[in-house]
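Q: Got a minute? One more chain.
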Amino acid sequence: MSTSSRTIVIVGGVAGGASAAARARRIDEHAQIILFEKDEHVSFANCGLPYYIGGEIVERKKLLVAPREMLAARFNLDVRTRQEVLRIDREAKTVTVRDLTSGREYQQSYDALILAPGAAPLVPPIDGATAPGVFTLRNLEDTDRIKAAVDASGEKRAVVVGAGYIGLEMVEQLVHRGFQVALAELQPQILPLFDPEMVQPIEQDLRNRGVALHLGDGIEAILTGPDGKARGIRLKSGTELEAGVVILGIGVRPLLDLARGAGIEVGPGGGIGTDEFMRTNDPSIYAVGDAAEYRYGPTGSPMRIALAGPANRSGRIAGEHAASGKSRPMDAVFGTAIVRVFDRVAAMTGLTMTLARRLNRSARSVVVVANNHAGYYPGAEPITLKLVYDPETGRVLGAQGMGGEGVDKRIDVIATAMHFGGTVADLAGLDLAYAPPFGAAKDPVHMAAFAACNQMDGLTDFIEPDADLSDVPQFVDVRTTQEVAEAPFPGVDGIINIPLDELRHRVGELDPSVETVVSCRTGVRSHVALRMLRQLGFEQVKAVSGGVMIRRRAWRDQG
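A: Always. Here it is, folded:
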């Protein structure tokens, strides 16, 4: 039986660091494994913190995934909380540590060093940012402070700054607690990582629930009262929002000072550069979690993706490699994420069209609206699914879903296909489980893939729902007259309304020699109309992806 005198030092706990420590122990029973964490708790459910504040998670102890005592007893880990690693001496292979309780500093040697410092909430350099009543949410200590303020609040007014995942989760939970909530976001939409039309229904639902949305308007200052406590915020527009509880959910910045101080390279994505085994430019030092870069699947480029799933997986790989010198490589990360906002769910994986344009990446997309399960079975509700793909190869580059029940499994199916390099044709051929309570014989995944395949095969051609259609020579709406009256198609003058069931007999009213765009409610009837017109001599016919439903979500006044 071999024994090991190897010392593995891990800086930071939670998802990446704790996963690395546990995996290293499972690989090497004899190594000395030391985990430094500057906070009190080394492994906790940071994604569950808003739900404890809101009362959905009742017991605080449920948030403690792996208490220090359990890690010591089960994995024989030397867990040192309230101790901060200040410096790395790469030549001597030591770290300088400060005990935050006693103030004592000392050196600890290592054979392998795993950096999992994580990321810190962004706090803008504005007046009042440190006033009592202003909070960020990163750890259990933050959670306790916010919950105490929420419990003690008499006025029950709060403002949340930042409409990303954490911001929206906090809005939801504060509303559940009976608060009057305002939400401010610098970008012109909530969930800025999504394409705008995919989140518009959630914006409307927030307004319907009494949440005051201030989009496209960033924070300028925290307002304070005579007692120095926060009493609200002032936006760049000059609007003042009164609130006794202010939550800053603007984003996070990776904690890179320790790595930079040791000459560890920071990559083009703004995180610590790593190879496929999570090694840095120093082969004895690894980096995992929110401060590290991963290979981004759709582009192959390094990118920092602050999500719990990649942090856990990268920690597992680094822990094994640090303990044994070998492991499976870290797979590409696609940024698969999901959020619930009251009764609605938004999820995504890979590229959006917005990001594809910013990266100058060639991409096409289709949008479909289909029920989450068989329409005749009670409780069916629509899912909006957007599929992004390479127009030359059909490789799936990304997807977004919005709806209620069943959004998660559609995005997970597509993310799985993307992991294996799947194409839209692969999605179209998937054999998915079907029974009326669970899905449809033609699942929303299939419907999106069918539409993309039709486009690639030349059977149809789509126009993006936010396109400028003001100069289209001939626009045909194939909905019924009543449908058109109830929901006019925006951004087009001189629309010709011919219901689909009359189109074949009224085709003589149209000019086959000019470009023609067709639309309906969600895109199903317009596809039938497009195929009909093309076979009746109309050579230049396109359809609006997602129909008027998605157009009305995406439309921005072009004038």
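A: The chain has a mean pLDDT of 94.
Q: Perfect, thanks.
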